[in-house]
Amino acid sequence: MTNFLSLADVADLDALIRSGIDAKANPFADQHLGKNKTIGLIFFNSSLRTRISTQKAAQNLGMNVITMNVGQDSWGLEMEDGVIMNSDKAEHVREAAAVIGRYCNIIGIRAFAELKDRAKDYQEQVMHQFARYAGVPIVNLESATRHPLQSLADCITIEEVKQSNPSLPAKPKVVLTWLPHFKPLPQAVANSFSEWMNARAKAGDVEFVVTHPEGYELAPEFVGNARVIYNQDEAFEGADFIYGKNWSSYTHYGQVLTQDPSWAVTMNDIRLSNHGKFMHCLPVRRNLKVSDEVLDSPHSLVIEQAANREWSAQAVLKEILLTL
Amino acid sequence: MTNFLSLADVADLDALIRSGIDAKANPFADQHLGKNKTIGLIFFNSSLRTRISTQKAAQNLGMNVITMNVGQDSWGLEMEDGVIMNSDKAEHVREAAAVIGRYCNIIGIRAFAELKDRAKDYQEQVMHQFARYAGVPIVNLESATRHPLQSLADCITIEEVKQSNPSLPAKPKVVLTWLPHFKPLPQAVANSFSEWMNARAKAGDVEFVVTHPEGYELAPEFVGNARVIYNQDEAFEGADFIYGKNWSSYTHYGQVLTQDPSWAVTMNDIRLSNHGKFMHCLPVRRNLKVSDEVLDSPHSLVIEQAANREWSAQAVLKEILLTL
Amino acid sequence: MTNFLSLADVADLDALIRSGIDAKANPFADQHLGKNKTIGLIFFNSSLRTRISTQKAAQNLGMNVITMNVGQDSWGLEMEDGVIMNSDKAEHVREAAAVIGRYCNIIGIRAFAELKDRAKDYQEQVMHQFARYAGVPIVNLESATRHPLQSLADCITIEEVKQSNPSLPAKPKVVLTWLPHFKPLPQAVANSFSEWMNARAKAGDVEFVVTHPEGYELAPEFVGNARVIYNQDEAFEGADFIYGKNWSSYTHYGQVLTQDPSWAVTMNDIRLSNHGKFMHCLPVRRNLKVSDEVLDSPHSLVIEQAANREWSAQAVLKEILLTL
Asked: Is residue B139 one of the residues assigned to a domain?
């Protein structure tokens, strides 16, 4: 693996999931791989899970870690080519990426969607500019349209549940549901989860359904062959996994079209499902998107998902280290 | 030791002080204890000594360290249970604590008093919520009402002075004095110092006196059996240690009742004492709370106290690591 | 080497340059030197290259690294002696430096010029106060008037080009040129580069020329014996290295006297030179100070210069570690 920007960079998804599960069982087995190797973690946005779990995974592998908050530890970065740089952005990504690539063996980047210009966000300029100029592997720590380390952790989590619950169907039903929120959020986690679940569905590992209010359709390249059901109750029938997430509209880009509280997940929804497990990438706003009752019940997988971020990062970093 | 939230978590104070003094003499003797162990240091507030000394202590013990500034590196955290999370706080401590506890073997937390609601501050919600949900040991890096790593460093400092000054009385007189300041500060350091000195007094190791203007009485559970003298000059008579600190009123909660400059410590005060040593937890505002002359004289222990923060943290982390 | 504040702290510049080149060839050869040693990197200002390269260099040498942003991670620091500390600066450098010096074996400090009071900036108060009170070696990570780690990296870069280009003259012509900018910037990089190039010129290693518009004369102690030419085209004739940098006026202190775009470096300027290499310390504002065409051509050394920051830091830290 040279970069980890999206699912397209994964040669063998099953193997990567197994590698994550192996790392969880034996975290320090590959400590020699990272000796005298450094990862730079560059944050354009806030982070808790990604920041800590990726540092931890790198240290498990024996790497050194350097973190930097852009615009706080350092100055702002210009992403556009050919401009006269007379704005508040003092450095161009061409230099920043190339320079960090000379200090670090791998670079992780977090850069959220701005939700102003859809074409711009969906071009994934920051990731691509870093990948183009850094000269070293780039790891996506959540970009404008994707969060693949989260999706890998989600796959690991579903796989663990399957392995420990022989009563689950061979192709469990996984439902991605939109949740209400008062702020416009990026589509990255929902996009990425769809992308990865479509791959799992294609391989015969899951059945994948998406449910949301009208107007919240995801981009066609992410919905793929998923079945879209606009009635949440119908979608939840027989679900083995309910994956909740809010996102702003893709078609009316970045807009909040409704905050309809009936879309929040409560125990009534769980009861519609097949003793369904509840998943969310966190942070989650309790009682706005999901009820306390669900989150504090044995149905919730949210902490395990977050814990698995360490192992998804470790699986990815290990695969990259093996190519260095 | 499972948590280090306050003196109540210390089984054997003498042993802990000795452990700190041993670490100072031989900082790297226990480096095997922390191998492949990670401490997460979570700051809700600014920090210099605590930030650096705790990192250093953990590294002396062979640990990995991950630091995070809440609301700067990550988003704000909701502490109240049962609320609908529609404020600016995007994540609940239930998730944050549980997740960080999955990445880290020990979590250190700094969260100052807000000085608005006394009952709330004195409930120590942040520490208790983290202790409840993290699933791993919690270390208090200064909470709303206590700063036990500072108090342990203070005990180590006093013990060192006793050991190197045979002429000191067996029960030296320790005076905690209020100092003037224009801003309302928490009572945490004064509370904690009182708590620990009362324990030392009970064991026959010191005589403990508190002096402050009327209205600055500390909470009864912290004053304990200390002698309170409202006349500073009288309190300083024969003092072997003068411990200065400003705090805002506990009874008129969070208020500045006076800024009377006569309460600042100068060489005149030292002369009233028994060649008394001056102590302060730092940062200290020079010439507002204490004169340059005192701080730059051999009477001052403030740098040694701060240096001993490394060894108090190391003693605590070692004791916790031994239980993991 | 006890401190690295300026060229005056360098006993043997040739040896230091060679040490940097050796470190680049064999980065981990001296890893034993830094074992159980800690460097504290204290930033009063933003940093990208310095932050990452110095961390990396210290880790190459086996050191632990602790970074701190003053006024963000910690509170502001008072630098003036004898004042009553009733401003927003809660801690005095006397305590901060002494305390950090108790935790760290070496301290790196970045503190830019404020460009308000020339005498104050040129006194280098922050560096000198830290050097006075820390009790451990201080490394200048860019101060009000100098950036010696940059200058050492620049010397390494020029030396590398000389070694790999036998056709270069024995005494290549190095031209420092002022570049246009809309914001007032410190003179530190230009001062430092002049100081180091004057030393190289004195040793017969280079010919050194400075060019800038009238009113941008550097301080006499930094210009030294350099030839100053006010006509940029004339200065560039036969140049082997063109070192670009903007700085605000020293004589009209901190002012922007002109933004004349004809001073920006383009391929026309390169063509005037002797196939000259372009150098800049970065960050650089593209198409304001230098054209894309120059920066993206083989004439540009800017990425190599930045990469060499790691080796200049490693050479300096190694020399300091050898004295501890």
From this structure: yes
Choose the closest CB to C74 out of B47, B59, B310: B47
> What is the number of CB-based contacts under 8 A between chain A and chain C?
88
Give the tokens for residue C39.
């460097």
pLDDT in tens, A27-39: 999 999 999 999 9
Are A119 and A106 contained in the same domain? yes
pLDDT-derived band at C73 (thresholds 50, 70, 90) equals confident
Note whether C241 and C118 are same-domain residues. no
A85: chain C residues, CB-CB within 8 Å: 285-288
Q: Is ipTM over 0.90?
A: yes
Phi, psi values for residue B292, rounded to 5°: -50, -40
Number of domains in chain C: 2
Closest residue in chain B to residue C104, using alpha carbons only: B56
Same domain, B83 and B102: yes
Pair (B91, B175) in one structural domain = no
**Neighboring chain B residues of C92 at a CB cutoff of 8 Å:** 283-284, 286
pLDDT in tens, B275-305: 999 999 999 999 999 999 999 999 999 999 9
Give the integer Cα–Cα distance in Å for B140 and B6: 8
* C1 within a domain of the structure (yes/no): no
Q: Is residue A1 part of a domain?
A: no
Q: Residues of chain C whose C-beta is under 8 A from some C-beta in A?
A: 27-28, 43, 46-49, 51-53, 55-56, 59-60, 69, 72, 182, 282-288, 292, 295-296, 302-303, 306-307, 310
Asked if C288 lies within 8 A of A96 by C-beta distance, the reply is: no
The alpha carbon of A73 is separated from its chain's Cα centroid by a whole number of angstroms, namely 25
Residues A71 and A185 in one domain: no
Confidence of residue A162 (pLDDT cuts 50, 70, 90): very high
**At which residue do the structure tokens 């939230």 appear?**
B5
Which residue among A36, A81, A84 places its CB closest to the CB of C28? Answer: A36
Give the residue-averaged pLDDT of B230-251: 98
Report the pLDDT averaged over residues C146-156. Answer: 98
Containing structural domain, residue B207: 150-306
Q: How many residues does chain A have?
A: 324
Is there a single domain that holds both residue C121 and residue C179?
no
CA distance B264 to B288: 7
Collect all residues with Cβ–Cβ distance below 8 Å to C311 and sequence separation of at least 6: C20, C21, C23, C24, C57, C153, C156
For A123, the token pair is 């071009």
- pLDDT tens per residue, range B160-194: 999 999 999 999 999 999 999 999 999 999 999 99
Cα–Cα dist B57/A151, whole Å:
36
Residue B309 has pLDDT above 90, yes or no: yes
Q: Which residues of B touch A52 (CB under 8 A)?
A: 40, 66, 68, 99-100, 103-104
Check whether the bond before C220 is cis (ω within 30° of 0).
no
Tokens describing residue B43: 């700051």
CATH code where residue A246 lies:
3.40.50.1370
The pLDDT of residue A73:
80
The continuous run of DSSP H or E covering A278 comes out as strand A277-279
Say if CB A297 and CB A291 are below 8 A apart.
Answer: no
CB contacts, 8 Å: C288 with chain A: 84-86
Chains that touch C (3 or more CB pairs under 8 A): A, B
Say yes or no: B119 and B174 in one domain.
no
Query: What does DSSP assign to residue A218?
Result: P
Across the interface, do B47 and C78 touch by the CB < 8 Å criterion? no
Q: pTM of the entire structure?
A: 0.97
Give me the pLDDT at residue B258, please: 97
pLDDT tier at B82 (50, 70, 90 boundaries)? very high
Secondary structure of residue B281 in the 3-state scheme: coil
Residues C91 and C133 in one domain: yes
Q: What is the pLDDT of residues B244-268, one digit of tens each?
A: 999 999 999 999 999 999 999 999 9
